[in-house]
Amino acid sequence: MIGAVQLGVLAACVVLFVPMGMAGWHLSRNKMLFFSGALFITLAVGVHLSPYFPSFSQFLTSPATTVVLGDGRGSCLSLLHDIVWDVKPARLMRPVSYTDSNTNGSSKSSAYDRELLWSWVRSKSVLECDFQKLRSSDASDLLNGSWVVVAGDSQARLVVLSLLNLVLDSDQMESVKGDLFKRHSDYRITVAGIALKLDFIWAPYTSNLTDLMLRFRQNVNLPDVLIMGSGLWHMLHVSNASDYGVSLQMLSSSLVSSLPFSQELGDDGPVTGSVPIRSQHLFWLGMPTLINSRLNTEEKREKMNNRAFYSYNMELHKSRILRQAGGHFFLLDIHSLTQSCGPQCTEDGMHYDGAVYNAAVQIVLNALLIESNQKL
């Protein structure tokens, strides 16, 4: 292929530039003839060489493509985390219990004396994207017949809780909470009526996620929606950001061999046409903002500080596993959500009010609408 391109370029140079040099001396005596001849020869060069440079050829044949894509809904993906928070006066709220990530298995509850509300910012660009908080019926329709896998530590488990809260009624939720919050365990459910299969995989380390990807490859069976993330356990129990980066590289390698990625996906969303809901939709669950003074053990306060957090976050971006960095996972930016919500949204400095994870689920659902080219 390279030889053909070189030969074509050489032939074009001989055919076009040699006569141009010979004619240039004669044409230079008449400025009008010279510039007319130069324009003609320039166009001829472009026509002859364009077949050997596909991107240039595409530019010549479809000049409006870039403009159309830039104005599409795919660009709205970058605005999904533009969220603001509002604190409402006290009302009776049910506490949320959790027993996993870095809590040494101890159960902890938080009873909030205020209600946290969130909404997308009302900027012109965000309003044009028409983001919506999906109701139970809308979410059920969107996820009908899908297989959703969420893998990670208790941050991932809390995302599962918010998703189930959206598609199940209160009585159903009471029956699943006990099994969902069993310490360091997987959880699976099929939601009757919409045939939604939802799996939570307890995978606190990146190596666990890599093993999961290898199982997907062996079974030749991939989820429609995959949400995964890691970091907190590694930060506490290994405390080596470089090692975390290596584990992410290994995960990235396993992804390349495990998933049939659509070539229609660009850095910020669909590049051409629509992407079916049955293609794989991949989300990376980022780590939350850590409020060091509220962490409940001395070891956590020592190892899970701002310096460690940003070192780990840097390794995440360097790994190029994220779509924003040329990879395949759209970042579900829990750090951004928890940072904007602030210390008022957490009691233990690590696990946040359910409203944060509700917002995360709505971001996922809106991203699915965008990537599948759907509207409510």
Reconstruct the topology from this structure.
Elements: H1 2-27, H2 31-49, H3 54-61, H4 65-70, E1 83-88, E2 96-98, E3 108-110, E4 115-120, H5 124-129, H6 136-143, E5 147-152, H7 154-167, H8 170-180, E6 187-191, E7 196-202, H9 206-219, E8 225-228, H10 232-237, H11 241-258, E9 281-285, H12 298-303, H13 306-318, E10 330-332, H14 334-341, H15 354-371
Parallel strand pairs: 5-7, 5-8, 8-9, 9-10
Antiparallel strand pairs: 1-4, 2-3, 6-7
The overall strand count is 10
Largest beta-sheet characterization? 6 strands, mixed
- Shape assignment: globular
Distance between the termini: 47 Å
Radius of gyration: 27 Å
Q: Which residues form runs of ≥5 with pLDDT under 50?
A: 1-5, 47-71, 101-111, 261-278
Percentage beta strand: 5-15%
Looking at how many chains there are and whether they match, the oligomeric state comes to single chain
Element-by-element helix/strand order = HHHHEEEEHHEHHEEHEHHEHHEHH
- The averaged pLDDT comes out at 78
Structural class: alpha/beta
Number of helices: 15
Helix content: 40-55%
Strand order of the largest sheet: 6-7-5-8-9-10
